[in-house]
Amino acid sequence: GVGSDLSVDLDVSSQDDLLGFSSSESVLESVSQENGKGKVVVLEEAVHDLLACSNASGVIQIVLRIGNFVNGGTFRGAASAFKLDALPKLADLRSARIPGMTLLSYLYNFIDTKHPELKKFTTEISSCSKASKLSLPTLRSDLTVTKEELAFMEREVEMAKQGEKIQGDRFLEVFEPFSRTMRSDLEEVLKMFEETMKRYESLVARYGEEKGTLPEDFFGIWVSFIRSFEKAGIDMARERERSEREARIAAAKEKNLQEKKALRNEQKEEVDEDNDHSEEETSDAMERLREGLRVNRSNNAVKWSPIPNRLIAAT
What we know:
Blueprint: H1 2-9, H2 12-22, H3 27-34, H4 37-52, H5 54-70, H6 103-114, H7 121-124, H8 128-131, H9 136-162, H10 171-206, H11 215-300, H12 309-314
């Protein structure tokens, strides 16, 4: 069989290399990566995190309530759900009353003010980022290829076991336990993948998405929304900092203006007080002058006395 032919072609050095590989501590990791276990783990983590994230559900509920309020009075004003692909579009809906305000920035400000604990959802479902880069068709293909390669290896092992024994041939010694390890690992991966896909379908239904939605699309929406939400937070912080800075500048200007005004009033009061003293002094001086004039007129006046009668008689 092919196994016997392969063993004949192996020289001592190549057999040693093969044994070194099969006994290496990295072999299981290599097998796991080749059979798609790493990708299945990434998908499983994202599904688990999003199913367990109550904060993400809370954000969705708030988005729904805000949407119903905005659409109040229309046929869309009593919606019980919405398509997730609407989340990244919240940044495109701008307020007609407040310049620069979008529905996303309003959402962030509302959550930041009323329910700040919900902001943790961005880190709680960060595993969505890796999951959004997966390709489900590629993952399925990887698993199929791994099953085919393992089946081929197992056939080779069986053929080698039935073939003629050749001295020094260590093919069975190496590949029989190796194939058993591969089989066990692959069965574990396939079981994990099947269970993960069931939970993923439950997750998709929970958020009202269509059955058959690809994980890369589903998780991609969440990744896009997280980025937009975090950017809205950064923009709001910058705007708040700018407003506070302008408020501090305005307050400093107002304080400076009030201090200058107070200083002018103080100076005016001093001038008025000096003027009052001057007027009082002038008034006192005038009064003293008038009094002096009255005294002088009194002292300098001609005193009139009648002529004695004897003088008149003598005349």
